[in-house]
Structure formats: structure tokens, C-alpha cells
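Closing statement on the glutamine sub-project.
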Amino acid sequence: MKTSVIGYPRIGKNRELKFASEKFFGKEISVEELLSVAKEIRKGNWLAQKNAGVTYISSNDFSFYDNVLDTAVLLNVIPKRYRDLGLSEIETYFAMARGYQGDKGNVKALAMKKWFNTNYHYIVPEIDDDTVITLSGNKPVDEFSEAKALGVDTKVAIVGPFTFLKLARFTGKKKAEDVEPAIVSAYEDLLGKIAAAGASWVEFDEPYLVRDLTEEDIRLFSNIYTALLSDKHGLKILLQTYFGDVRDIYSKLSGFNFDGIGLDFLEGRKTLELVKTNGFAKDKILFAGLLNGKNIWKNQYSKTLESLASLKEIAGDNVVLSTSCSLLHVPYSLSGEDALSEEYKKHFAFAEEKLKELSEISLISDGESLEAGVILAENDKCFSGRIDSVDEAVQARVASIKDSDYERKPDFFEREKIQKEKLQLPLFPTTTIGSFPQTQKVRKNRQAFRKGEISKEQYVAFNEEKIRECIKLQEEIGLDVLVHGEFERNDMVEYFGEHLSGYVFTRQAWVQSYGTRCVKPPIIWGDVRRKDPITVSWSKFAKSCTDKPVKGMLTGPVTILNWSFPREDISIKESTLQIALAIRDEVLDLEANGIDIIQIDEAALREKLPLRKSDWYSEYLDWAIPAFRLVHSGVKPETQIHTHMCYSEFTDIIPAIDAMDADVITFEASRSDLLILDALLENHFKTEVGPGVYDIHSPRVPSIDEIVTALTKMREKISDSKLWVNPDCGLKTRGDEETKASLLNLVQAAKTVREKVGS
Ligand code: GLN
Ligand code: ZN
């Protein structure tokens, strides 16, 4: 049986691309050096797949920052303000991704959004009325040829035209259908070049098909592909979908001139049913996504073989075993995890191990594995219980949660009055999202403690000194609600995971989140409980350094779950409630220790929101929002609960966000032109809000004027008594200097606006 991998991780086994890119940004290495690091990574990826015997290996799955951005550049979708900088090609590319501030000008980055239901972020292409879509690059062809020269015959993977247009922002009068002919002709030109380079397969990634499709969407898809597939230049074309099922268009797909159709049988709850009821076109190959590209648990071979057998009954021999999505979402390899014992490791498969799984399953399925019996027996053992994973007391506590545990008393408006009275903050209170720059020294201190090179006392003393400095800095800057700076945290989820039982950690299991930013999601291994107070001593210390209010800083249960690799043996709802109870205990401890403002970050609340609207509440929000309320429902009315989200894309779930019943919410807004504000107004949003006034994902320092302008716009839609002033996310990835300059401007802008109001 043939096998297929939709895409491979590309950040490098030891994050080589991250480090090289960062050096390039810092002008420490040349563009040639950066290109050669990238080339080595691609080579390693292709050879790993080739050696594992994968039949369909992708090229063009590599990216310096993001594949959607690559596609935008390929199609000449480069907004004028970036062109006008007059930079080199690669510098223009990075200016779009990260913004540019230098002698050639000062431009913000393009907006960034979550890639479907993952923690990967793509850059949102911007199409205005003057955009001329035309083929203006050669990356897919170059990478195909590069692989070919290494003896690897690849399928060329490209973000499909339909998904590209659906994800792009149209900033002028034009709509997707207006650019249809241009995009078809650009892709046609591309197919011609790919064919000329000697490729046989092209993979068009069209994950947008798993969303709810309107008739207009279906028309757009049909028009594009009818035109595009009328001349395939002798190529075979794979339509690749993932992250769900394609129920709105499945029955029509057989009518298109595709040669292969890739379907996700894991996240696509209806995929199997669709194939069974509608059959599968005889003239096409079914790329069956049965190997999880998003989670790290071993594949259960017996189940997969069963699925394959039933698919073969329908599609005959035209079945290819595939990953369910790109392996971009899992780490490279288990080989670096020496600290994990076999008892644990035997349950996991990262990208490299998944390659082996593909090959083993395909051999067994073909009846060609001599050791099939042994392999299957070994594999089965992994699914009959795991050591140290059951905690009966935790299970009992979850079972005894009452409805009233999900409700905070008194209601929001009464609390708002009580809190204003107690906290006596100025109008437009200023604050930050929590973390301050994580300098080398801060990281070294944590590492040294971890390795046992310094004592606990030394470790604590260093961090307390940092907290003292951070508080002093915030006082000097003139912020109103201070934070301790989060110097003890490597990562907002891993840190909490380390203080909870039921978690397993890795050393090298990095996954790309955006650009050069990687995360190392911990693994939820068993039932979760809080071992001891987690953040209390740091917050208490910070409070002792100042008379101003200090905000306690926690990560919420939905985010902890969403940024961990979840269990597959119990529901994610059950896991989330276990975590919610653990964080609830921490909230109550902070309050008991005099912390009267507590932020519970739900940076990733939206992440597992089902891609189809009809599933939003029943499958997710109906338990995720109550899980958040369970965390804070036990506090006193005067304790102010904040939450924070890393994006502004919640226009469509505003009632659910309000129902989290926090007192204040901060969120990202600066990169998305404040579109959310209208929606807040329309929905009579009750929660106080701090839409981020500047973008922390780039090193650029916002001017006072710019922040005043943003605040002025916000005031048109948000009442003065509810508006907070803050950056759009934590500052840990920024440098000390730019942070201080930015925050000084932020405070000055708030003061300017206060003066205007006469307060
Ligand atoms: N409190 C966290 C911080 O400031 C929030 C991070 C996030 O939202 N991703 O770092
Ligand atoms: Zn954030």
C-alpha cells in the first residue's frame, strides 16, 4: 500500500531555522547563510521520509515563515506599502510577516490568524483593488527541483486557490469572484512550470472545504477548479483536505477532474459515513488520512487496519494511507527524549515515528510483513492502560461538581460597582498582559536551577530581584495595575503543567506556532491535580514591593488543555474540568493571600472551536465556558477577575465570551484594525475591555500619537468607564529597551486621552 505525508515539520530538528532566522534578523548572519540552513533542513526532511519508504513526499511544505504568506508572494499579493520600502525580496517577505522599522520606513506587519483549529498561525494576505494577481515567483518549482536533485521525487504541495481566497482579506471593493480569472491563470502558469520541471503530482491543500460552505463558496470552488483542471499539463492533481469532513461538497467532488482526493478520517466525524453512503469515484485515488498529524499518541494499528479494509471494499486498490494533516503540528522525533522512560515513550509517535508507523501499517495491510503478528501484539499492548494515570479522588471531585459551582455571585454589574469603589483606578487604567522581557539571564537562571547548578534559594533570590526591578520599572513608567513579570515561567502552559500531577514533559518536542516562535506542549498523561500552590509566593512577593495593585497571573483550563497534547482515552471536557478544579484552588489561594486582581489567561480559548458553526455550542462552548466560570466562581465580589485572549477573532462568539463572566478582558486588536469594536457595541458587551493598543509580535515602538488615535477610535465604540489600555499580549519575546519605550508611550497616550476627557 502506498503512503503519503501531507507536510513535514520545518523548523529543524533542533530548531535550526528559528535560530538562523533570528540571527538573520539581528544582522548576525548573511542571507546566504540563512538559505543554506534552510536547504539542509529540507534535505534532512526529504531523506528521512524517503528512507522510511513514504511514497508521496511533499516539497514546498517548507517555509521561512508561513505557507500562506509564501503563496501570497508567489501570486504577487504584496501590498503597496511593503513594495514601497524598496527592500530585497526576502526582506520584503519578512517585512510583511514581522513589520519593518528602519531607514526605509515604518510599516506594521500583516495580520496573523490561527490556522483553522490549530495553534499554528498564518499571515493573512491582503488583496486591494489594485492588487494584480499573477505568478511572480518560483518557490514550488525550485523546491521540487532541489528534491529531485537529491533523488527524491516529490509531490508539490501548494495552498489551493480556493482556501487562499477564503483566507485573504479584501480591503477594497473587489471580492473573491472578481479575482477568479486572475488567480486561475496564475495557478495555470504555475502548473505549466511544475510540469516542465518533471513533477508528476501536485497537491492542492484546501482545508477550507471542511468548514460550512455557502452556495457562493461552492460556486467559487467549482469555477476555479473547472477552469484550472481543464488543462493539467499532464500532471496528476491531489485535492487535499484536513481538520474535518467535507460534507457540504463531497457528493460533487467526483465530478471534478482530480486524480486524488485526500480526506481526514480522524477529525472528520462524517468522513467515513460520506464515503460509505456516496461511494468513491473509480477514477480517483483515495488518500485516507488515518494517521493523526496533530497528536502524539501511537496509532492503534488494529483500528487503522480495520478502517483500511472497509475503505478498500469501497475504493478497491486505489487507497493510499496518509497522515490526517501536515505533521507540522507534531514535534520531530522521540530520539531526543532521553529523560523519558520507555514506559512512557512506548505510547508516543512524533513525526519520525509516524513515518515508521505508515510503513508498518502498509506492509501489514498488504500481508507483506513477516512479523505482523508480533508487531500487532506489541502495538495492542499500548492501548491497555498506562502507568500512573488514574487518580480516583480527582475523578470523584469532578463527578460531584454542582450547577451552582459554575455561577459567580453577585452579578457582573453589582461587582463592577464594588470593584470601582475598592480599587480607585483612574479612567482608562493602564496595565500589561503579564510577562516582561525574558532576557538571557532570566532563562539561564531557570536552566541553572533545573540542572541543579544553583540552589533553590539562589534561584528564588534572582527572580525576586527581577520582580523588584520589574515593579520599580512599572512604577517609573506610571502603569496603574502592575504584574510580577513571569520570570519563573518558560511557557504559560508548561509551567502550570509542571505543577500539576498527570502531566508528562519533553525536552525537544518543539512545534512551530508562528514564524520563529515555537512551543513545547506538555502531554496530558493521566488524571490531573494540583500538587501545591503554584504562583502564590511570586505574587505575594511582588505585592510586598509596591502600594499599587498587583495582578496575579494564571493560565485558564481551556488554554492549558488546548496547548497540551490531550488524552485520547477520556473526553477533553473531562480533562478540562480536572484542570479547572486545580486552577480554582490556585485562584482561591491567591485571593486568601491578598491578591485582589487575578488574570486567568484563556489565550487559546478559540482553538478547539469546531470549524462548523452548528457544532460550536453543543460540541464545545457549552462546556468550555462553564469550565472557565468554575475556576473563578468562588471568589469574593471585590476580587477583580481578568482574562486575556491572543486574538480578536471572536466577533461571532461574543455572547459566549461575555458569559465567561470575567470582570475585564484584554485581547489582541492592533493588527486587525479594531474590527471587533463594532461587534462589542452591537452585542452590548458587559465585560470591561482592553483591546491591545499596539502589536507586541514585532519589535517596533508605537508612537504616542498612534496609540492616542487607536484609543480615540476605541472610545467611539466602548464607554469610557469600561476601557482599559494595554499592549495586545505579553512582552516576554521583546527586548528591554523597546518595551520601556513602548510602555512609556502607552502611559503617555492614556494620560493625553484622560486630559481630553477632563478627568
Ligand atoms: N500572561 C501571559 C504573558 O503575558 C499571556 C501570554 C499569551 O497570551 N500568550 O506572557
Ligand atoms: Zn496573548
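The longest helix spans residues 456-477. With this model delivered, the sub-project is considered complete and its resources will be redirected to Aim 3.
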